[in-house]
Amino acid sequence: MTKQTELKKPRLVSWIVFLATLTVVLITLTTVVFPAFVMGSIGGIKYPVKINIFETGIWTYQLLAANFILLATGLLYSKNKLPQQITKSIRFIFNFEVSAKIAFMVITILLAIYVAFNISELWVEDPWEDFGRIVKPTLEKWTIDSIIKNPSDTHLVYVLGIISMKVFGYYTVTPFIASIALLILTYYITKEISQKRFAGIVSMAIVLQSGNFLIYDTTITYPNFWTLFYLLSLYLIYKKWPLSPVSYILSIPAKALTAAYLPMSLFFIYRTNIPRQRKLRLLICYGAITVFGVIGFFTFDILPLKGQGLVFNFHEFWAGFTAFSYESRHDGLVIMLLLPVTVGLFIAARKGIANTDSVMVLIMGVLLLAPMITGLTGGYDNNPYRFIPLIVFVAMGVGTILSKRVTEPV
After folding, report:
1. pTM assigned to the model
2. Of 41, 95, 145, 235, which has the most beta carbons under 10 Å away?
3. What are the structural domain ranges in the chain?
4. Rounded Cα distance, 398 and 65, in Å
5. What's the pLDDT at 176?
């Protein structure tokens, strides 16, 4: 068997990751096609009204059409059955690259357009109910002692919000800066993974068009700080590995949910093409975080368990899957890309493109955490802003598929 053949042969771990991700994605998309199917099919629960489990959702027909076209095109392309002109166009897209100068110009233009259309939000008070009820009163009375009194709260959000008010006079400025930084970071991490500037631009554009991203980009109630710090921790694995655990730790006081992202980070490190010595050091650092995290979990009240303890509720677990169908209703493109990106990443893995497994695990992790947390907490709300990382990971997936680099996984 030649080395090239070995490169194209997916390892067992790639099959396991693909099948697991595909299962989670198909269950999730079932709730998009038939929003009531999963919950309506669960036995033992009586509903006050009769539920039509086959009632279609608002994205059903767009999802089916887009997936049929994309998957059929991909299949025909792989079998070389497409018209020559279409095949050449697809190959052109996969091989297309831009210079550093052009990439800088495109990114600058995209950011300028984004800022121009959204800067007016900086002078509008946060419209969310939780802002007036919880966040604003906390910001006005927050002190260092608040960390000791409630260590599991989002204290980094309050610190950055207070800085925003003291420096700029508005709570919205630092969240806006974080959203801009998240767009730029999406470009850089995708470029690092794919080794293509064009792929980074495409990924950045996918995040920029997201409805949920644009809804939460300037809010201090549900800011993007946690997503930014978590994504930065992944990027620093490549660039400045000692700072990666620091960035990950900072993401937790921005949103405790990122504590549950730790297994995803460990797998990302394990499958990333970096020197083995650096990989070992990172795994030791994140292993230490795991140990302290377990201790902290049992020491502090991190999850809202409502006095019921860690009792898994399967009804709420399936309800967590259903939440995606309406919480992501503003992200049609992401919904339509979920399945093609999953399949595309596996095909890319078969061609020897690195980091495909890592991105699949990131996508699967976000989708699976929603039902897992609702199952553990007995109905923890999965608000749309908790799917912002999914938007970024799907965008990274598209960029990874566009990668032309072929390397043997380490």
Report:
1. 0.91
2. 235
3. 3-401
4. 19
5. 97
